Amino acid sequence: MRVGLILGGGGEVGIAWEIGVLAALEKEAGFSAKACEVIAGTSAGAIVGAYIAQGHSVIELAAVDRAGKGVRIGAGFGGKAEARPIIPQEIIAALMSTEGTLEQRGASLGRLALQAKVGLDETTFIRGFRKMVGTDEWPRVDFRPTAVNTETGATVLWDSVSGIGLDAAVASSCSVPGVFPPVRFGGHHYIDVPRRPFGGDLIESKLLDAIVFVGLILPILANNNEQKTELEKAAGGRLRTATITGGPLVAGISEDLLDHSARVRAVQVGLEDGRQAAAAVKALLR
What we know:
Blueprint: E1 3-7, H1 11-29, E2 38-41, H2 44-53, H3 58-66, H4 89-96, H5 102-115, H6 122-133, E3 143-149, E4 155-157, H7 166-173, E5 183-185, E6 188-191, H8 199-206, E7 210-214, H9 222-234, E8 240-244, H10 263-284
Parallel strand pairs: 1-2, 1-7, 2-3, 7-8
Antiparallel strand pairs: 3-4, 3-6, 5-6
């Protein structure tokens, strides 16, 4: 069976929660994330996806987060980024807006991102992600971190033949406007803003039989909800899907998604949500 894995955004909390979910699915359902035909990740999911694609054990990563030792976003920036970044209100309003197409909204946010003053230069930003993911070389696993072109608003799925380094690709997927600098590549800039759902592209290009989606569903994470909706529609056809979006315990970890200290609780919630979803995922893999 050809299975794809899509990982949503969610900041520091999302990283730990997704790791917990995947660790529980491996233990309880025999689902090996690193054995998937393709792994696609957005923002937090790009970081988790990079770890998995490089062969890291999600069970070991979960143990690290439970011990409070998960790597903080920005740990490699040399103290040049805010410990608790604050997104400008103008950008928050644009992020929450539903006016226009996703491409129009992405281009509008792109203009704001290019104009915003941030306390971190692009080189230091990318180097920090190189330290986080461990390399600028792409893994052999088909890994697709996503980003948005600031000039056109188009959604991009990077891969090993895109020409961009792995560190820069993951950094672009996490480049929150007003907090981190846009990432330049090929005459354009790339950032972390709402994307167009891309599950259909993966299904068609990889001839997938099933997709597992792991992503928190929260008001500020509209992209995750749109991705889930797209996959639910696909489930009406030949594709088999499993979506893990969080249970009632998520309310206790979602107040501040950028709070690194919340990761200990978040991984525990993820482990529980993964256990709850294990039966459905196990059935999917039969």
